[in-house]
TrEMBL record, chains A, B, C, D, E, F:
GO molecular function annotation: manganese ion binding
Protein source organism: Marchantia polymorpha (Common liverwort)
Presence of the UniProt keyword Protease in the record: no
Cupin type-1 domain ranges (all copies): 48-199
Protein name: Germin-like protein
Binding site for oxalate: N95, H100, E105
GO cellular component terms attached to this protein's record: apoplast
Similarity comment: Belongs to the germin family.
Subcellular location: Secreted, Extracellular space, Apoplast
Length: 206, 206, 206, 206, 206, 206
């Protein structure tokens, strides 16, 4: 008994186009055990195994080395709601202030002593929480909040992060603020400093 | 050590078909900053900008004019959980009783004075909430509840809606009930009126 | 090393108040096997059992009888994402056009032959889908869409509904539109009929 | 004013690939009335109707017969958050201990008397809840918990399940534990029995 | 037939404590039309109405004025998934670079001409998107990404924001990075500038 | 203009009771930076720090030792969507076949060589995936699927689990199936073995 006008047909085509549009997006609930491999061949055990952390080349310098184990590098995670990362901190290095826009992080110290900091969004003055972490300690950085780590020791520190998203994302604040050529008037007014200070902050970014 | 029978292979193909099936659907969490454009070219700033509200042709008459800014008309919204609409009410016009099946609405009055109504689902007698809104007032219409507006003034009223979904949908009740040729027996029994009243209600719908 | 001003303390109290505020709401993911009983006594098997459908008194007349098995009548469902209802249709009765604002429904015919209708949101003219269901048939009414049933047979029909929410809600359209004293100007303009027709539609509602 | 390096372009291609990757997954919120049919032709009422439960061939024996009405067998359910199943229990048959990894189940007895059991995750000793269900009774099996049914009567029992997912999945424990050739050392240590008992348990699985 | 040991009872009490613990949190699906008022009195229409934007005192200076309409200032929004804000920009003022950790924003220009900027998370060099917005234009700032606005005109600019969360939160970057006394070694290494520049950036924050 | 009957008032009280009912449940989206401590005192850095993994007493024997870092033992995780666990495997020990009803697990080997197994839900014959993991390897156990580990080496193995839920739960299969006194008829029919084998399996459980 269903009736449809020609108009409805064209409306339907519009809906179908919308379906195609909205097909890309997601950290949804699974409706299968796991997403099949991209080649649609039956998976074997290696599909569930990540072995690229066995031999990590550590780049010396003042920045922490991060190896992401997320849905991009490890596709089986698609739709499963969790990701990881290995962090190696050379002596004296920092993991610069940053946020993860799509996930909470727990950081577990594998080796060494690490200083961490987290800033909440209390208004008008945010609150800084800092802690010294020892081997086997865990610290929580809730979703979207600014945080950082620094290795003030003489030894390499290693830590392992767990995230509540398969692709938590990374907003690196020094580069995002001073490495993309934001209008200097925005920056001088926002940071309330002179343009030569903004210029110095920007000069060191790539 | 993983082993699979031929049977498992065919089962797997079934799962893969399911994957294709389930690809269309969603207002899910993002796992990227934003969904890329349909042409997969790198986006520029215009991808994030909606300019079609600059010059709205207002159609006079007894119905409000609605321009939707949702995932269909503004694809960058895909997966981002919010949409908008501009509403222009000629003097004496109504926005007929309707629901949005997939989202809550907040309505902000840009210009003029507007009467609004909302009906909840209290049983057995629902409750009507009505209000007169002035410029800069906001009223909330929770997801799925029947609501309407009327401009009882002599001036054009303009308002701007925000939704909790990228595609909240619209169930226009006069047309849905009386414009699709529902079996008159259903309508006379449901509305408890004679068939000639149902016929009159139906005659004016397209 | 964490420091906080007195200001932060008062801001914190505000957050705590917010916590209390936001405590009520939800069809969320479980973080336990099930929500404990309201009396916090350990549950026994009867906590998981609903027996009130054994002897349903059927009220004759022109309307279907509905018994809800949702989180209000069966609290163990809290947080579990599913609810049910038993529907009994005397001969000639209707389940009036309505929506469920918070859930999709599947309707399973237990006994008899039932006519069902569903209207989508295609614009500008919605599409009506109608079907005759026989014993053991299932029909789907997606979330928020208008639907109805009518028993055109001489026999009692029984059906069992499943919902995708623990409390899908009910917007009964005859009563919501014509039983709550909406401003007649809104209704005459919206339904494009004279005020005496609106008066007749309203007179029969409680 | 937006600027992009060639590097950004290649990064973008990577994001686009990710989009394709993540397209398959989901029990997400709808952004449409319903997912269109796979052939993208306008749907008619049969798209919303499931008629395959009309004539179920019951296979006699010691196991319950299950017919799933989920997103695989009834694609309109895609994105709608609910599924069903019909269960027919020959006299003396069991529905073996199992879990549904992706959904809560409510079980409604259509005909006969059924014994059910549910085990929670209390530590260190889980709790068993058992119940005798009569016609029209409902029992809840929360997501992921082990449960079973047995028909101890001389008559066929029929029941109808509702799930909070469009594809709740099934982990059949006898077959999963003893039918896939798990290393016997794992099983003897886990179940704390001798290898000949494990061998007997495994011998009867396909 | 259910049996429980004393041990299970104490385990149950632990679960009940967990229930209390987890009661605070949420932007969940509603299971009611709307959350009742905190005083649990039946709501009236004013419960759904926000009138505090009628007369906004604008504070002159170099920063935008923001009035939030979120679940804290407008409790009816609890569980409804949307919030708003009114922004007034004196001539020459900025809305400093910031993120919203819990929601996407669409910004609608009510009056005047506004420059906006958005930075994504492309690696290793993020991409800046900038745009000049005119009256009635909308720009999208996806969840968690850094963005800012500046009024380069001689006139007051007004804009209205919509968010995909009832409490999107605010990470103000100048204050978060330089106003909470982060260890200067972290900041000099992260921003790769001398400690006197960090000192100047910090000196101007409260 | 809102009007309410006395009936509506009592209906409202019912809704308020429902609000209280539904307050306990959840792994929802946050609407704050983090849930405040149970004592509602402003948190300090120790609120975000878990130090109980520093000195784990390992109990020798044939079972793995598990220390959970979830919302019960570490309340700051409430609403943040992630949890962890430390696993220590004495030589020859197993982590018995089990499921996590509410979360996916990634397992990272900290020290030693570990055999793991995962069984999917392919029908009619599930598929077993097994793997030998070395230090720094990660394996994924998707939500709700049966999995196990065994340390076949002569050395202690240590591993660290990440979960996609703040309280993933644990269904230990030997104890759930054979330690709660399930009706032997259910077990003999389900596992298709004689009652003396079921008796032996049950005798060793507490």
């Amino acid at each position: 008994m269903a009736s449809r006008s020609a108009l409805a047909v064209s409306t339907f085509l519009c809906l179908a186009a919308l379906a195609a549009l909205s097909a890309h997006a997601a950290d949804p609930e699974e409706i299968r055990d796991f997403a099949p491999p991209a080649d649609y061949a039956p998976p074997n055990a290696s599909y569930f195994t990540f072995t690229e952390l066995r031999n990590i080349d550590v780049k010396q310098g003042q920045f922490a080395n991060v190896t992401n184990v997320n849905v991009v590098s490890f596709p089986v995670l698609s739709g499963l709601g969790v990701a990881n990362a290995l962090l190696v901190y050379p002596p004296g290095s920092v993991n610069v202030p940053h946020t993860h826009p799509r996930g909470t992080e727990t950081l577990f110290v594998l080796e060494g002593t690490l200083e961490v900091g987290l800033i909440d969004t209390t208004l008008p003055v945010p609150v800084l929480f800092t802690q010294t972490l020892y081997k086997n300690d865990i610290f929580v950085f809730p979703r979207g909040l600014v945080h950082f780590q620094i290795n003030k020791s003489k030894y390499v520190v290693r830590a392992y992060a767990s995230f509540s998203s398969t692709n938590p994302g990374l907003v690196s604040l020094p580069r995002t603020l001073f490495g993309v050529h934001i209008d200097p008037e925005v920056l001088t007014k926002s940071f309330e400093v002179s343009s030569d200070i903004i210029a110095k902050l920007s000069a060191v970014q790539p």
